[in-house]
Design brief:
heterodimer; A: alpha/beta; Aspartate Aminotransferase, domain 2; Aspartate Aminotransferase, domain 1; 2 domains; seven-stranded mixed β-sheet; B: alpha/beta; 14% strand
């Protein structure tokens, strides 16, 4: 958390990570320049492809996740897209959990459709549903460790076994858990994606994403990674780079061509956040459990969804995969007669809060509140909403570092304002 | 970032070997000593195709100042260096024999390496032949199995880190130039 990926440099000995705020890097000579472009030497060319500050974030994340390496991107959405565009070709399909962040669903359904890549969604708790959705076109499985916003816990081990038996990678979005609470690679996941904007940065200051590779998947028969690449002089990335093949291709081709790079300054801010990650996750998860228990006992609350509670359907999976805490995000519904009443009550509740910031993010050190049906998940159809468990009265909280007694006071006030 | 200290860090990722095999044939101290002390590296199975892994390794090592000797009976010159059909044909001392041939041929290469009094035998990434490794080790050679010379050099000289990879090196000490 505080050392991996950064050795103080030989000249200055600077202890903090320096910000290399530069677009480009001077070559030693013409031969080195050519060899760098051919990927035959290690080194920096241009910050769209790699940067020494960003490399610290990448290696530190890889160290925390137990990955063979990492690639930082402009956002979590970019991390996903770079992953999909590196793995998939027109005609391929991906099978994904229906319990995803709304933006991920639209990316899978609408944006990937423009690349002639199909997406099928399954109820994540049903292994039969995953199995039934896989076709010969399926090239990857995709889910979130902790589903957004209802806290469904992915049975990573079983789904990874299924993926492995079909020779395809399991991609896990570990944004909500972070490696402080769960390391999906230890349970068999192949690739990890993060919105680093959330708990990794932790302070609501920078947008960023990271994708990571376990290095354990045999890509030798996986066409896009094993076959000669027309975008790189017929280079066969898996043959040449072995366990670094996927990441080298993601960097040298997909990141190069999509331009979805992270700025070095944002990498620095995310590194600052990482230094306190486990402390924040422990405290924020503990406070989230207190809040969940409080809400469950409150007369104005109809239901609470938090995998750390005994009432959650995935409590056993949470105990297995998230023994240190079920994360800092939870959702609940206010008691209401109709959907319209639920929506109105939700609005009154959010407007009565003093300490919770009403905004579209999670993972800040400050506590946050939002009504997903009218915001983060607004672009989804009614069917997609109900599949994802986003009911009209659902309110999502992201618990921060405030004194939890102050948070309970604020919630109680706002609930009684109904 | 220059070469970090690193010697005390366990390097465990990306290996087909058991922990016991890793301790024998992937010792970070042995690898760092080989990278530091070797000057002449014979690459058995170096391809003349510039997009093959062996060519990537050879061109990298040459740029880093090592003398690279291609061993390939089907080529005359690779990377401007004279090719030899086998290890026995190489005039002069070979420090490190780096192998890019199928596992089934490794024992024969190990015998040749011992015969020419090479100081070390290195079987490349995903290439495992324990019989060959044991044969060379018994003859007093340093042996590395299932690692890549280029990746290991990059691990201790900063390049692998720049590529966003997990070097497994943790150190608060100032890097050495």
């Amino acid at each position: 958390m505080v050392h991996a990926g950064h050795v103080p440099d030989a000249v200055t000995g600077a202890r903090a990570v320096p910000i290399y705020q530069t677009t480009s890097f001077v070559f030693d000579d013409a031969e080195q320049a050519a060899q760098l472009f051919e990927l035959k030497q290690y080194g920096n060319i241009y910050t769209r492809i790699s940067n020494p500050t960003t490399a610290v974030l990448e290696e530190r994340m890889a160290s925390l996740e137990g990955a063979t390496g990492a690639l930082a991107t402009a956002s979590g959405m970019a991390a996903q897209l770079v992953t999909f565009l590196t793995l998939l070709s027109p005609g391929d399909e991906i099978v994904a959990s229906s319990q995803l962040y709304g933006g991920s669903i639209t990316q899978l359904v609408h944006t990937l459709k423009k690349f002639s890549i199909g997406a099928r969604f399954v109820e994540p708790s049903s292994i039969d549903a995953w199995e039934a959705a896989i076709t010969p076109k399926t090239k990857a499985l995709y889910g979130e460790t902790i589903g957004n916003p209802r806290g469904a816990i992915l049975d990573i081990g079983r789904i990874a076994s299924l993926a492995s038996s079909r020779g395809i990678p399991l991609i896990v979005d570990n944004t909500m858990a972070t490696p402080a609470l769960c390391r999906p690679i230890e349970h068999g996941a192949t690739l990890i994606v993060h919105s680093a904007t959330k708990f990794i940065g932790g302070h609501g200051t920078a947008i960023g994403g990271v994708l990571l590779d376990s290095g354990k998947f045999d890509f030798s028969r996986y066409p896009t990674i094993a076959a000669p690449s027309p975008a790189y002089h017929d280079l066969r990335f898996f043959d040449t780079f072995g366990h670094y093949g996927f990441l080298m291709k993601a960097r040298a081709e997909t990141l190069r061509d999509t331009g979805a790079c992270l700025s070095p300054f944002n990498a620095f801010l995310l590194i600052q956040g990482l230094e306190t990650l486990s402390l924040r996750m422990e405290r924020q998860s503990a406070s989230a459990l207190r809040v969940a228990r409080f809400l469950e006992g409150h007369k104005a609350v109809a239901w609470v969804a938090y995998a750390g509670l005994p009432s959650h359907p995935d409590k056993a999976l949470a105990a297995k995969y998230l023994p240190k805490g079920a994360g800092a995000v939870l959702s609940f519904g206010l008691k209401a007669g109709t959907a319209a009443e639920g929506r109105a009550a939700g609005r009154r509740f959010i407007e009565a809060l003093e300490l919770f910031s009403h905004l579209a993010n999670i993972g800040d050190v400050r506590s946050l509140v939002i009504h997903p049906a009218s915001t983060t998940h607004q672009q989804l159809s009614d069917e997609e909403l109900s599949k994802g468990g986003v009911t009209p009265e659902l309110i999502r909280l992201s618990i921060g570092l405030e004194n939890v007694e102050d948070l309970l006071w604020d919630l109680d006030r706002a609930l009684l304002a109904q | 970032m220059g070469p970090g200290p690193g010697a005390s860090c366990a390097i465990t990722l990306n290996s087909a070997l058991s922990p016991a095999g890793q301790a024998l044939y992937q010792d970070p101290r042995v690898i760092q000593a080989l990278l530091r002390d070797s000057r002449t590296i014979a690459i058995v199975g170096l391809s003349s195709d510039p997009q093959r892994a062996s060519w990537f390794v050879a061109s990298y090592l040459k740029k880093e100042g090592y003398r690279v000797i291609p061993v390939n009976p089907k080529a005359e010159r690779i990377l401007g260096e004279i090719c030899y059909p086998d290890l026995a044909s190489i005039p002069g001392q070979v420090d490190l024999v780096d192998v890019f041939r199928p596992a089934s041929e490794c024992l024969d290469v190990a015998r040749q390496a011992v015969a020419i009094k090479a100081k070390a035998l290195w079987l490349q990434l995903r290439l495992v032949n324990i019989e060959a490794a044991e044969f060379a080790a018994r003859a007093g050679l340093k042996v590395v199995v299932d690692r890549c010379v280029k990746m290991e050099h990059g691990r201790y000289h900063g390049g692998l880190h720049w590529a966003g990879m997990n070097t497994e090196i943790i150190s608060a000490r100032k890097a050495r130039l």
